[in-house]
UniProtKB/TrEMBL annotation:
<keyword id="KW-0812">Transmembrane</keyword>
<keyword id="KW-1133">Transmembrane helix</keyword>
<keyword id="KW-0472">Membrane</keyword>
<feature type="transmembrane region" description="Helical">
    <location>
        <begin position="12"/>
        <end position="31"/>
    </location>
</feature>
<dbReference type="InterPro" id="IPR051104">
    <property type="entry name" value="FAD_monoxygenase"/>
</dbReference>
<keyword id="KW-0285">Flavoprotein</keyword>
<dbReference type="Pfam" id="PF01494">
    <property type="entry name" value="FAD_binding_3"/>
</dbReference>
<dbReference type="InterPro" id="IPR002938">
    <property type="entry name" value="FAD-bd"/>
</dbReference>
<dbReference type="GO" id="GO:0071949">
    <property type="term" value="F:FAD binding"/>
</dbReference>
<protein>
    <submittedName>
        <fullName>Salicylate hydroxylase-like protein</fullName>
    </submittedName>
</protein>
<feature type="domain" description="FAD-binding">
    <location>
        <begin position="154"/>
        <end position="353"/>
    </location>
</feature>
<dbReference type="InterPro" id="IPR036188">
    <property type="entry name" value="FAD/NAD-bd_sf"/>
</dbReference>
<keyword id="KW-0560">Oxidoreductase</keyword>
<dbReference type="GO" id="GO:0044550">
    <property type="term" value="P:secondary metabolite biosynthetic process"/>
</dbReference>
<keyword id="KW-0274">FAD</keyword>
<dbReference type="GO" id="GO:0016491">
    <property type="term" value="F:oxidoreductase activity"/>
</dbReference>
Amino acid sequence: MSPTEPPQAVPFHIAIVGGGIAGLITAIGILRYNIPITIYEAAAHFGEIGAGVSIGPNAGRALELISPDVARAFDICRTDNQWESHRRNFFTCRVGDARKADKDGFVKPGVKVGDALFTTPFKVEGKSGGVHRAHFLDELVKQVPDGVAKFGKRLDKYSEAEDGSGDVVLHFHDGTTAQHTAVIACDGIKSRSREILLGKDDPAASAVFSGKYCYRGLIPMEEATALLGEEVAANSNMFFGYHGHMLTFPIEKGKTMNVVAFASKEQWEDSKWVVSTTKEEMVADFDGWGSHVHKILKAIQKPDIWALFYHPRCHTFYKGRICLLGDAAHATTPHHGAGAGMCIEDALIMSCLANEAKSVQDLEKAFTAFDEVRRPRSQKNVIESKQAGMLYDFELEGDDLDKVEKNFTTRMDWIWGFDIVAQVEEAKKLFHEVKAKI
Ligand SMILES: Cc1cc2nc3c(=O)[nH]c(=O)nc-3n(C[C@H](O)[C@H](O)[C@H](O)COP(=O)(O)OP(=O)(O)OC[C@H]3O[C@@H](n4cnc5c(N)ncnc54)[C@H](O)[C@@H]3O)c2cc1C
Ligand SMILES: *[C@@H]1O[C@H](CO)[C@@H](O)[C@H](O)[C@H]1NC(C)=O
């Protein structure tokens, strides 16, 4: 249906729990088909932490299919590598750890610590780039009509409506309730909905620590250029090392360099996942690394540590009329830079399925089809992303740089080269098959 046609009188009203990237883009996608929805967000307003997130070409293509407006929001916020020769590269890879070098500073013939080793080209069409999360969210919020989102609504539990409709009643922390035909739960990595849906005893109900944590920081581009030279500062780089790696990429149209430095530990004891630290402690964590990495670390003003958690594989994304989407369904480590992209793909599939649904019963069939097409791909990313973190940290192929290159230059193909149009068709086909069966 084209969005200019008059509203269809669908006999349902969907709740979206959580207004992050996943909830907002799903909302925009569904609203485009004139299907009524309400967003319930725990916070007092939409908001995001100010950090960079990179979006791959698969997600860029999905955004264009969701709506020209979300694609425009991405364009407004999106920052590519600044040099034309680097435009279509995920990363330029380098060794950052000086312990890999021989006595003359070489990590392999002709290549020193900090020098370019190889690049990982995207290979496929589709817009990509880094966005400042808060800015992207702001642009998305502009596309959500007034009144659609309710704030200060922290979901505590669900119950079935007593009127025999089979509707879901959402119970919020403030004591209020709301009744909806179905719920799309986008409540993020600490999802309450996931816990309820899978049951607290399911080991997949909550996220587990990945063995990696990271320091995140932003550096003004002028300062980064002075420290590293323009080619390194203005384009994305990854620095490999032993049990750690660092990545940098430009955000905010090249005004800022985003830095993420990863390190390893066995357990995460703190109940908080983001903790502040001192520059001294951060620098000490990269003892033995080369001058590029040290210069970058020293330029970060107020470093935070982020513990990296992910969701173990669960057996379903939905139960009855509640369906998990985005990080609530498949929170991942960030090593593929594909977590938000999977949320965007989810949003496209869910909105197309919602548009197929014409009755209340159809919504459950839509969730069945969503689960069937989205679960394998998104869970594969969770597993392989964790493996990628090990690759960059010389824990998968060791410090054999040829093997690391071979692995890295092909491991992203199935993510970036994905045919999302075919998956939309597959999901619709499944939906109609399930519909025919019942
Ligand atoms: C360090 C790090 C780096 C990353 N880097 C990348 C990257 O480079 N590329 C990439 O693609 N992805 C990256 N990601 C992943 C990406 O950020 C996430 O996949 C994405 O932001 C998840 O969006 P979401 O909307 O599902 O969840 P969230 O953004 O967590 O949003 C959840 C929303 O639900 C609300 N909420 C929570 N509980 C409730 C409740 N009970 N009731 C009501 N509302 C609730 C929250 O307030 C929030 O607004 C990274 C993640 C991390 C941690
Ligand atoms: C990367 O290496 C791991 C471990 O050796 C292997 O399982 C995986 O298939 C490799 N991936 C690619 C794309 O080479």
